[in-house]
């Protein structure tokens, strides 16, 4: 029998070593999990991920995370074929829609014609307009924004426009309205940007500003059919937790939950596990990336991994025999690497079910993230258009 419920948890940015094409992205030497382990000097405690095979899938085990002998699940890695290393690219590719044409990037800031239109629409002046760290920019310009009501607009090494504003100065709904308008300017044909991100923050001064959970990603609508659509059209329930709904613009999704944090996301996972449904639950946990990867904070990153691992124990205990869990990531964001951008890395692939017939197997290095979606479709007997299923290796038959 096929699995009735498939759960995929994406540990946003938890890469496991430089990809074969890392040189194209100037990311040779990046290793998110490896460098977090080194920062903890053997004290990174991830017992649940370890027994699933997190160190088994690596050439060099993560410091402090033992190789499981045998692992209770199957393990491997996935390589990305999309042209970029953003969350949208990674998630779309997992669902059978890799981004094969480069999106627009703006290392020198957005064109003045775009800025002029945003200023005219919003009635507010735009400041900064260049690549910047999201936390550093509100430290450097947040107090000015509170005084003037300007829009702090910036980008990064990814195809994104981010607009930050203090919630007491520009209400969240107004910021969303501005971002929705900016989204319309970046859908092509001249400029095609992956995401426009609203970045509200709070706090009295630059030393106490914090970004809030009211972040919202206004993503480019999928340019074709995804595996979410295929599952939905075949009559299976599709549930999105975290920014999944934003990344896919709601397409093919039946039920969606917004996350306040990783732990809030795991609360939603626990809630969905109590539902009686047949289909797919797709979860993104973004704190690894947003709070620790971009801020190059390996200690915070490791603590977030340990917190997740603890909650993962509950998930493993609650799984039913006809449940399948897969854990992966969408890209790297090595907190021990230079810069503040995502890193081009392979991502972990862990698969587990209480009824899995052949646990402890290596799934190898998959040639595309799309193998994940193809496997899910194979489980539900839905045809895939891209990717090679590994369902037979992880099945309960």
UniProtKB/TrEMBL annotation:
Pathway(s) annotated for this protein in UniProt: Carbohydrate degradation; 2-deoxy-D-ribose 1-phosphate degradation; D-glyceraldehyde 3-phosphate and acetaldehyde from 2-deoxy-alpha-D-ribose 1-phosphate: step 1/2
Group of enzyme by EC: isomerase
The cofactor required is: Mn(2+)
Coiled-coil parts of chain: none
User: What is catalyzed by this enzyme?
Assistant: 2-deoxy-alpha-D-ribose 1-phosphate = 2-deoxy-D-ribose 5-phosphate; alpha-D-ribose 1-phosphate = D-ribose 5-phosphate
User: Which Gene3D superfamilies does the protein's record reference?
Assistant: Alkaline Phosphatase, subunit A, Phosphopentomutase
Where along the chain is Mn(2+) 2 bound?
A: 289, 294, 342
Q: Name one GO molecular function term.
A: magnesium ion binding
Q: What does this protein do?
A: Isomerase that catalyzes the conversion of deoxy-ribose 1-phosphate (dRib-1-P) and ribose 1-phosphate (Rib-1-P) to deoxy-ribose 5-phosphate (dRib-5-P) and ribose 5-phosphate (Rib-5-P), respectively.
Q: Output this protein's name.
A: Phosphopentomutase
Species:
Limosilactobacillus frumenti DSM 13145
Q: What is the lineage of its organism?
A: Bacteria, Bacillati, Bacillota, Bacilli, Lactobacillales
The gene coding this protein: deoB
